[in-house]
UniProtKB/TrEMBL annotation:
The chain crosses the membrane at residues 98-118, 124-145, 157-176, 188-207, 341-362, 374-397, 685-707, 713-731. This is Lead, cadmium, zinc and mercury transporting ATPase )). NCBIfam families: ATPase-IB1_Cu, ATPase-IB_hvy, ATPase_P-type. It comes from uncultured Aureispira sp. Gene3D superfamilies: 3.30.70.100, Calcium-transporting ATPase, cytoplasmic domain N, Calcium-transporting ATPase, cytoplasmic transduction domain A, HAD superfamily/HAD-like.
Amino acid sequence: VMSMEKTMEIYDIEGLACASCASSAQNVLGRLEGVTEVRVNYATKTAAVETTSSTMGMEVLNEKLARLGFVLHRKNKDAYKKRQERAQKALATLRKQLLIGGFFALPLFVLAMFFPTIPYSNYTMFGLTLPILFWSGRHFFVSAAKQASILKVNMDSLVALGTGTAFLFSTFNTFFPRVLEASGMIPHVYFEAVGVLLVFVLLGKYLEAKANQQTSSAIEELLAMQATTVQLLESGVEKKMPIEIIQVNDILKIRPGDVIPLDGVLLEGTANIDESMLTGEAFFVSKMKGNTVFGGTILQQGSFTMQVTQIGKNTVLAQIIALVEQAQSTKVPIQKLVDKIASIFVPVVMAIALLTFLVWWARGLWVEGLVNAVAVLVVACPCALGLATPTAIMVGIGAAAKKGILMQNVAAIEAAGAIDSIVLDKTGTITEGKPQVTGLEWKASLENQGFLEGVLLAMENESEHPIAKELVAYYQKQGKEISVSVQQFKNHSGFGLSAEVDGNVYYLGNQAFLTEQDIAIDGRLAEVANTYQKAANTLVFFANKETTLAVIGLSDVVKKHAPQAIKTLQATGKTVYMLTGDNEQTAAHVAQQVGIASYQANVLPKDKIAFVQALQATGKKVMMVGDGINDAPALAQATIGVAMNSGTSVAISSADIVLRQNDLRQLTTILSTSKQMVRIIRQNLFWAFIYNILLIPIAAGVLYPWGLLLNPMIAGGAMAFSSIFVVMNSLRLK
């Protein structure tokens, strides 16, 4: 049997106005022959389409999507910028629709509630409703029509059905009141219900769109890390060239502070490179001839020439971008509770309305049957529906913000309560994220230790290395000032520093540096160094030409409250994992300190996202917590991504939630707040629907034998009560 090759393409999709629209697009594309998998993501406005046919191009897909009003765009260099422009334009339009709708809805509500009998009130309300319905609320009817074309319903269908029916019924009664009066019925109007409901639902749409606007910024942050120009070496001459023309095997010159433009091999020179993008680790990585360097990393010290080995989508940075993009595009969208309810509620209400008409018609009262069927449809759409989720989310987000938790993705909030697995990055998440002096031991019986400390401080002050900066800060905290001037200062990349003071040469660096200089390590200092090393410390030695004078231990220390925070999470039944780009020894030491049994060391960005995907494949709901660029793909992939506020902007924009205080204890607060918010949303939806559900039998005419039919004042009262209940219930989150 011949196996067919599958190809996955990710497109931008234009025209998505709601999560259900994404679901509809996904269903249409998924039914096409040759399409094996489709994931349409509303938050990122992307469609990931896997096909087995080479003929299944974008044009064929767009042909099928045309009837829903969606358009696929091929990704190119400007795709992200165009997507952001479309999102900003859509948000601005939504804001304008909300403001104009509110402007007309306020006098409409006041007129209906307090001055319903003044002359021409019905005509005035008709005029006030027109701009709300046909401009501010037009989207709901367009969306409902698209859903109906594929035999689906959602919240937009419910809103369009209720408001559309109410408007048509009210308009008929305004211009032809005698028709119902001739049958002994009162020609009621429901214009204010139409206006107020549309404005409330628009408010919810606006809040959601504003919260989801940040999702694509992670990609843009990563793209901004790519160099746009390079220094190309040709026949020994440097030329500044655009990165697009560079080919494999070209030779480039890299200087301190440069972002390395592409992946390659170091040919000449030495370097200390910040590779935290890949590993998340604060310590610089030393490179020499023959070592691999990666695009997007930053040269901190030294200069070198490199030969390009990977360009375009084959570079490591491009692969990280692709991982983030794929994670955002293929992440299973969280279906909103309100859409789940609407999918069942709408068909039921339509069936009741039809049944109402048929029962009355069977009794020979078709006019009454039509009026009561319309009344069922009008009263079925709860005014408080538009408030149920937004009010709970607004109050919940505000309450969380006061506790230092910034919730960026509205949809993720509803999912946080179901989390059962928590994956923690090590550096900057569990630990402080920078080297700190944990021990400093001087050789015994030194008569001039104070002077030597001054030499050490002066040498470190000349260096830009993170370890040097930490040692300077360590001594400055003790009130020590630089009192010695150094000569012949030299940075030995990958080894350490050397300098002369008063004609004597001093060395500061790693053990390999001392071995190269043939300097012995004092017996007692060797024991201390061994103790530091067992505790996963980085060692720095200070020596003169004859002997080692001091040994310094530095490590990225565990945050003060991390062990207790992890213990609390485990006590609530959550499984906690740790992933790190650091070595096995350091990873084991930190895991043991904080009580984590399951950890992995030496992991790259692709390994982190694979770990999260493996957990999700077993049905786990995963929270990923990190702070680095290397965490971005996993943050985007996880059910909930949580970033530290001290982390990179890429990590923050990839995450759903940001911890402003960089404290892991806040994870427990996130989980409890989410559960409370979901509970409040469910209660709100109950109160939003219950009054209207109770009024449906009255609207259908069940109490007609007792002379009771639906009155607009009863419907208005129900809406007011349910709205007040919803708002008051949401305020409990404070």
